[in-house]
Amino acid sequence: MNTVDTNNAIGKPAQGDKLARMNELALLLTDASRAYYGENREIMPNIEYDRLYDELAELEAETGVTLAGSPTQRVGYEPASELAKEVHAAPMLSLEKTKDPAELAVWLADRDGLLSWKLDGLTIALTYDGGKLSKAVTRGDGEIGEVVTNNARNIANVPLGIPYGGDLLLRGEAIIRYSDFTKINDAIEDVDTKFKNPRNLASGSVRQLDPTVTAERRVRFYAFALVASDVKFTSREEQMRFLKTQGFETVDYRKVNAATVEGEVENFADRAARSDLPSDGLVLTFDDIAYGESLGRTAKFPRDAIAFKWADELADTTLRHIEWSASRTGLINPIAVFDPVDIEGTTVSRASVHNISIMEELALGAGDVVRVYKANMIIPQIAKNLTRSGTERPPAACPVCGAATELKDTDGVKTLRCPNPDCPAKKLKSFTHFVGRSAMNIEGLSESTLEKFISAGFIREFADIFRLSEHRDAIVEMEGLGEKSYENLIAATDAVRAKVSRVRLLNSLGIPGIGAANARVVCQAFGGDWEATTNASYDELIQVDGIGAVLADGYTKWWADERNRRMADEILSLVKLDPGEVSEKNGGAGPLGGLTFVITGSLHTYANRAELKTRIESAGGKVTDAISAKTDYLINNDIHSASSKNKNAKRLGVKIIAEAEANALLDDANPPSSTTHDEKLYAMVLRDDIIHTKDRQ
To answer: Which backbone phi and psi does 125 adopt, to 5 degrees?
Structure first.
């Protein structure tokens, strides 16, 4: 890095302008990176991020100045979640990149290389000790990552045990396939809560406090590098073959040289549009391990590998107008509608602009010439506005109800909302959510059918859905319906009326932030007691794993509104709750019903004590902080410790058990009779209502 002469260089207007632009770019890129990597959201298109990044890198080269904390010197994101943090054994660096296949041939020179997919997900490092998965850590900022071991155990194709009995450290990408991404999004009726792309969904699914989310969203893992092992290899291809013998799925790769690499790039490109795996390019690595390691690294990049990013197929077209789509939460989303163009083999004419901030950044207006592309060859996006008229303004009135709109600015991201609680769009979307598959799951009530019933006055509130039999004659006569449709609809509502899940009911109400996963967490935390669930206090809720201050505040305020409570009570008067759905907390039904536990010391198979507590309570047990005569078990891996809790347990005759015995108790529902249970190793429960996987030795 060069030293700048402040009396000369910075004093020159040209240099000063460049430094000002560099500071501006660094701020923009830092905010975008934090949102993308740390918060699983986008505030600018990927293609725009790449353009600004390249501009910053060029300015740094021209000026000889590298700003402190420059995005060109950082890797990934700074971990900021509630997950435990850990320093990587070896830094997880970024890769130098190119979009020119010819540069790959020059880079290889006379060496062989491995060309493989660059999958678009969340990079994870897996550690195996003695053949058992012992640790999983996300990439984070390259130096420090988040510990997601229990979540990794819920990734279906991650081996919990491998044939190789030594120590192993490997890296791979956790992804969600396009087919699964589509299914998950199709099950979400509300456009606001749909996921923007598979990468954000995969990252958010793995970086969860609740490991079952990882399993439910069908996350997959593909190994791409063996970092360390007791076995010595001379080539990367040998390492990949070895990983396959250990049960890992690896990224698809091809052995290449300077003469063949460009042809293989074309082959990968042909397959990319048809692949079910999200990819944002390719990675080329020297096959000779010793040679690659001898090249060393820069502050940010290793010199033994290079990334190839797809040159996005761009098309220029004319923006006709911005369509404003109102939703049940009140958010009004801008959607760009343009003249149809063919990109990557399909015709596109619409692209989400996501929010007001992005619309303003692009300076959109009707008649503008915009350049569009498909992010990762799939999702239509606007890359650039070539004419930048900036004439489009957020509507002053809701396009559905006409109420005055509100412009919100949250952490620098502007969104438009309709504040009218009686907006028909809010009602329609709310009803669509209420009957959706993840909520009440009432078949036959599509959005178009609901719209007909709402317009006819049959449905004014959720409870009216269970009173549709009062309008039989009118429904049968409606266009597109008939006798058979009516009978199927009533049968579907009667099935739900007879036995409804508490989780589905709570999710269906449209409480901000309470979707299917959080509804399950809250219901289980209160053991299936509906009254306790609906009257939970802020202090009680923030003690629940996965429910933070914002969700707890919104939840309690929702239930404090008398209109909401009356609406929920009206529904409850027409349906019956499933009596066996959730184990009751603190001595209720379940294999641990009536048993009280205290947890102390460090744990091996759980991220923290709260996670073990949640599992015990979901099985009907009770967890307290202090030892008493009512305590049945003290869980402590150091059984012979001289700690005060161990002493109190022995004094009161409370049995002290290790973590493995607690797992045995949870899995088998039989009290441990001796410490021989220490010899048992149990894998995590993939889904507490589907399958228990045991790995015994």
So the answer is: -105, 125
Residue 195 — very low, low, confident or very high, per pLDDT cuts 50/70/90? Answer: confident
Bridge partner list, 308: 98, 282
Q: Which domain holds residue 629?
A: 596-694
* Distances in whole angstroms, Cα of residue 556 to Cα of each of 238, 330, 431, 539: 57, 20, 22, 10
DSSP state of 217: T
Who contacts 417 (Cβ-Cβ below 8 Å, separation ≥6)?
330, 331, 332, 405, 406, 407, 408
In terms of average pLDDT, the best of 84-98, 257-271, 620-634 is: 257-271
Read off the pLDDT of each residue in 666-674 and give the average, rounded to a whole number: 47
Whole-angstrom Cα distance, residue 37 to residue 175? Answer: 14
DSSP string, 461-503: SGGGGGGGGGGHHHHHTSTT--HHHHHHHHHHHHHHHHSB-HH
Of the two residues 640 and 493, the one the predictor is more confident about is 493
Helix (H) / strand (E) element for 355: namely none
d(CA 33, CA 39) in angstroms, rounded, equals: 9
In terms of average pLDDT, the best of 257-271, 435-449, 518-532, 670-684 is: 257-271
With a cut of 70, say whether residue 81 has pLDDT above it: no
Which residues carry out catalysis? Answer: 118
442 and 413 co-located in one domain: no
Number of domains in the chain: 5
- Same-domain status, 413 and 428: no
Cβ atoms of 282 and 307 within 8 Å: the answer is yes
Look up residue 34 and give its DSSP letter: I
Beta pairing class for 596-599 and 633-635: parallel
